[in-house]
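User: Is it possible to get a 3D structure for a protein together with its bound compound? The compound here is methionine sulfoxide. I've pasted both below.
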Amino acid sequence: MAEDLQIMTGNKTEQYESLIPQLKALLAGETDPVANMANLVAALKEQFGWLWVGFYVVKNEELVLAPFQGPVACTRIKKGRGVCGSSWARAQTLVVPDVEKFPGHIACSSLSKSEIVVPVIRNRQVVAVLDVDSSEYGHFDNTDQQYLETIVNLVEF
Ligand code: SME
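Assistant: Yes, that's possible. Here is the predicted structure of the complex:
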């Protein structure tokens, strides 16, 4: 396993393209989902420097906070609540350019201005979501969606 990440400068696509093979190497040979979620969010935080990046996993019909990097966050989110609960309920990625304009957005940090939430789907069920927050408005786009949807599939659940 590679222990040091090579941090790529450049455009978003170049950064994701450099990171994905490193993530594959980082997760190879480890099947524990917590260990893999932990390294995955650490690598994403190191490469992109986002405000917050982490997982919430579905447990007993709630989303429960799982490995993350960034400021402390709310621990439980109900289905349909906030961006995370809505992504879970709809089983689709949500890109939110301005969190204040998203009805029911849950403000874990007042510094968060935009957000993307990607559901992790296994056997046609949402088992977790990956949530990323930025301190800049409109930070996430279709490129983030495509790459993050690929990246969440690297983790076994
Ligand atoms: N803003 C999210 C809650 C999670 S935090 O951002 C870490 C939401 O509305 O679901």
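The two ends are 20 Å apart (CA to CA). The first helix runs from residue 12 to 27.
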